[in-house]
Specification:
Length: 354
């Protein structure tokens, strides 16, 4: 039998090396590495399955107004947490901490009523951890210490995010390379991280440019004074809040300035830009409809927008209409620091596992 030629032997070696490199590539190169969310019904003391993924996720009340979340199989280093209170009275929720425990992710949150006392409430909570290279759409997050040091960071363009303190309770966060093409594009979610006192964060303003996204973040204490605290911030455009796009096929976001922001801040993954709608439902109450994306298991997160200490949440659980299928948020509710309903700006993001 003739011996293989030198060229054939070299080709075989190249193919073997390519296969080896494929095998040893890290499994976490995709976006996201891990994701999870939970919808907690305080009245029934139970998790709502349609708003929870993965299904075995659990919530354990550990003290009055404090909860421990367990996301099985979704443990990962770093990442960010967002949480939104669900209550027809003025409440907000914040993260205490989160960490990997074996294969699972553990998240501790605390919730407050207006005035600053810990209180029980329903809520929607969300976790994502991402790494690796470019992703479809535009996606990035930071977990920032008060001094601007980043505990965790991700940018789908591969550029370095930054957080710069501008004064007490004020930061400039930049997501370079996340260029959407307009002057105000996409959506943001912000959450305070504080295990010691009531704290809440919001987006003051942001701008889009050829350099990326430039965001101003404000954080407040329970009395409405600006506060230095750790916080998380996530940016999305043509991608879900956990960074993936197609799949999932069903996600959307909306900016109420008020009134509604430009079409590039109003995205529906099925119908495109400008398709979601908002209707006033009373002072401080806004019904937001996301047509065609009501596929479970899904999650909704809300963040207040503007320069004051107003804050926002959800009046009750969102509904998944079978006639659309439309996802209906009835309603986003917003309050002054004293707890009075008020018309104010907010961002809202709806995301499905599908």
């Amino acid at each position: 039998m003739p011996r293989p030629s030198l060229l054939a032997r070299l080709l075989a070696c190249v193919l073997m090396l390519a296969g080896a490199l494929t095998i040893i590539q890290p499994a976490n190169a995709a976006v996201p590495d891990r994701k999870a969310w939970v919808l907690w019904n305080q009245t029934a003391s139970t998790v709502i399955p349609t708003g929870t993924w993965p299904a075995p996720s659990s919530v354990i009340p550990v003290a009055f107004g404090r909860y421990q979340l367990k996301f099985p199989g979704q443990g990962a280093p770093g990442g960010v947490v967002h949480v939104t209170a669900i209550n027809n009275a003025p409440h907000w929720c914040q993260a205490e901490n989160w960490f990997q425990s074996g294969p699972d992710e553990i998240v501790n949150i605390r919730c407050y009523r207006a005035g600053g006392a810990l209180d029980v409430t329903s809520f929607s909570a969300f976790f994502v951890s991402a790494s690796g290279g470019p992703a479809p759409g535009l996606f990035g997050y930071v977990d920032s210490q008060p001094n601007g040091a980043l505990v965790s960071t991700y940018n789908s363009a591969g550029a370095p995010n930054t957080s710069t303190p501008l004064g007490v309770g004020q930061w400039q966060v930049k997501f370079p390379g996340l260029v959407a093409g307009g002057t105000l594009d996409g959506s943001l979610q912000a959450t305070a991280v504080n295990p010691q006192q009531g704290a809440r964060c919001k987006v003051r303003v942001w701008s889009s440019s050829g350099a990326g996204q430039d965001v101003r973040v404000l954080c407040f204490d329970a009395g409405g004074a600006l506060l230095n605290t750790r916080f998380t911030l996530t940016y999305q455009y043509k991608a879900s809040l956990y960074g993936a796009a197609v799949p999932p096929k069903y996600f959307g976001f909306f900016l109420n300035q008020p009134p509604a922001g430009p079409p590039s801040t109003n995205m529906n993954s099925v119908l495109g830009l400008g398709a979601n709608t908002i209707l006033p439902a009373g002072v401080g109450l806004s019904m937001v409809t996301f047509p065609k994306i009501a596929f479970t298991q899904n999650t909704v997160q809300v963040t207040a927008y503007g320069s004051n200490s107003n804050f926002c949440g959800l009046n009750t659980f969102w509904t998944n209409s079978t006639s659309g299928p439309d996802l209906i948020v009835r309603d986003v509710n917003c309050f002054t620091n004293a707890g009075a309903l008020v018309n104010t700006g907010f961002t809202v993001s709806a995301n499905s596992i599908l």
